[in-house]
Design a protein that fits this description.
Layout: E1 2-5, H1 16-26, E2 30-33, H2 40-54, E3 60-64, H3 67-77, E4 81-85, H4 86-92, E5 99-104, H5 107-115, E6 120-124, H6 140-147, E7 154-157, H7 165-170, E8 175-178, H8 180-183, H9 188-208
Parallel strand pairs: 1-2, 1-8, 2-3, 3-4, 4-5, 5-6, 6-7, 7-8
Helix pairs in contact: 1-2, 1-9, 2-3, 5-6
């Protein structure tokens, strides 16, 4: 599975909608809309626009942020999921009739996220990334530890590229999530396709040797 986390502030030359659609054509399976600076109405309108783009490709739309927005979007445009932080999961115990994604940073958090209803987890950051400058990456071992403890999909996040994605899959991650690698790319279709091709080819290779 290839997840795209949006951030329109990373765009270089292409319009937001163009980047998203090109990435979807390249193989993205789900789009997590993470535009924290937008107000309610702006995010709602953006979600409607993206849903119209994603529907023909059967790509999932996941809203990062308040449950109020996610639930409204779900009712009006059919959002497939809601994504939140680990702390909000425990403090607010959100409920969503669809996918509930949670960002975690340790095996202990992964276990608690699953126990509290998470449908999938974003585990990171795995490798060094400009998005987390100065913060030590968690590394591949964290993914292995998490996979030994939980039964829901584990999506690896942070500094992942077509050069290191094999290490992530060898640690048994169920997929990867990318932000800057696609959003800031001058060729978002190619960036997504390169990652998706790697995911597919490595996955087939692993199945043939199991």
């Amino acid at each position: 599975m290839l997840y795209l986390i949006t951030n329109r502030l990373l765009l270089t030359e292409w319009p937001y909608e163009r980047v998203i659609e090109d990435a979807v054509k390249g193989g993205v399976d789900a789009v997590i809309v993470r535009e924290k600076d937008l107000c309610y109405n702006e995010l709602l309108q953006l979600a409607k626009t993206l849903k119209n783009i994603l529907n023909p490709y059967c790509v999932k739309l996941i809203i990062n942020g308040s449950t109020e927005i996610a639930l409204t979007v779900a009712g009006e445009v059919g959002a497939d999921g809601y994504h939140t932080s680990f702390s909000i999961l425990l403090e607010e115990k959100p409920r969503f009739d669809g996918l509930l994604g949670v960002s975690i940073h340790s095996a202990e958090e992964a276990v608690l996220a699953e126990q509290n209803g998470a449908s999938y987890i974003l585990a990171g950051h795995v490798f060094e990334t400009d998005c987390k400058k100065g913060i030590e990456p968690k590394g591949i071992k964290m993914l292995r530890d998490i996979k030994a403890l939980v039964h829901i999909p584990v999506i690896a996040l942070g500094g992942i590229s077509d050069k290191n994605v094999q290490l992530v899959l060898e640690a048994r991650a169920d997929g990867i999530a990318v932000m800057s690698g696609i959003m800031s790319s001058k060729r978002p279709f190619d960036a997504a396709k390169s990652l998706k091709d790697k995911l597919v080819s490595i996955g087939i290779h692993k199945r043939n040797h199991e």
